[in-house]
Design goal:
InterPro entries: Met8-like (IPR028161), NAD(P)-bd_dom_sf (IPR036291), SirC_C (IPR042518), Sirohaem_synthase_N (IPR006367). Its EC number is 1.3.1.76. Pathway: Porphyrin-containing compound metabolism; siroheme biosynthesis; sirohydrochlorin from precorrin-2: step 1/1. The protein is α/β, with parallel strands linked by helices. It folds into 2 domains: 100 residues, Rossmann fold; 75 residues, no CATH class. It contains 9 helices and 7 strands. The strands form 2 sheets. It has a 5-stranded parallel sheet, sandwiched between helices. Strand 1, helix 1 and strand 2 form a beta-alpha-beta unit. The radius of gyration is 23 Å and the shape is elongated.
């Protein structure tokens, strides 16, 4: 497969999962973080999936898959332990122009799911192209300790700092150099997981006009409290 890496916004998109076992559970667990409209179809569910549909907003149909299930879906996951059913879902999805992931056949899939490391806005995806998902998981285990909560705090601060830097520093080369200086892994790892303390540390790396604007905003917020 010649795969094109992409991050999809699934907010309010209709997504279908067919299956009620461990694999379906993993698909559902990740999908629930996207705020998609999730429909689950399966005649039976394992205990973990049962608990999930009780506490989460998942539309559940306790029956076998039918063609109409896929009509209005943006994505579909064929996650059953029945090869024939998964193959049927793939065929129907392709006719319907619905992107499909078939858990037991990368050849029948339009996309595969990478192993993911997530820290706030930081998202690292590791893929073996569907050839050996276990390798992706092993690499993830090697990397996960390297990207801890400091990265989430740093990017949360940068969400506010970046527009400020773009507005205050007009010279493109100066901006690029500043962003390069801030994107220092040792600096990020040294940050506190307390956002206010992390900001104090980052201010040491910012030019005076940026520090001044930050101080003014902090003073204004404090006055409003």
């Amino acid at each position: 497969m010649n795969l094109y890496p992409i991050n999809l916004d699934l907010v309010k998109k209709n997504v279908l999962v067919v299956g009620g076992g461990k694999v379906a559970y993993r698909k559902l667990e990740r999908l629930l973080t996207t705020k998609a409209n999730i429909t689950l179809v399966s005649p039976k569910l394992n205990q973990a999936v049962q608990k999930l549909i009780v506490k989460e907003e998942i539309i559940y149909y306790q029956r076998e898959f039918i063609t109409a299930d896929i009509t209005d879906k943006f994505l579909a996951f064929a996650a059953t332990d029945d090869r024939a059913v998964n193959q049927q879902i793939s065929k129907v999805a392709k006719v319907n122009n619905t992107l499909v992931n078939v858990v037991d056949s990368k050849e029948e899939s339009d996309f595969t799911l990478p192993a993911v490391i997530s820290q706030g806005a930081l998202l690292l995806a590791i893929s073996s192209g569907g050839n050996l998902p276990a390798l992706s998981r092993v690499i993830k285990e090697e990397l996960v300790a390297q990207f801890s909560q400091e990265y989430a705090i740093f990017l949360e601060i940068m969400e506010e700092l970046r527009p400020l830097i773009l507005n205050e520093i007009k010279d493109e080369d100066q901006r690029r150099e500043l962003f390069r200086r801030l994107a220092d892994l040792e600096l990020i790892k040294s940050l506190s997981t307390d956002k206010n303390k992390a900001l104090v540390k980052l201010k040491e790396y910012l030019p005076s006009q940026i520090r001044r604007v930050i101080d003014e905003r902090v003073s204004y917020r404090n006055a409003q409290e």
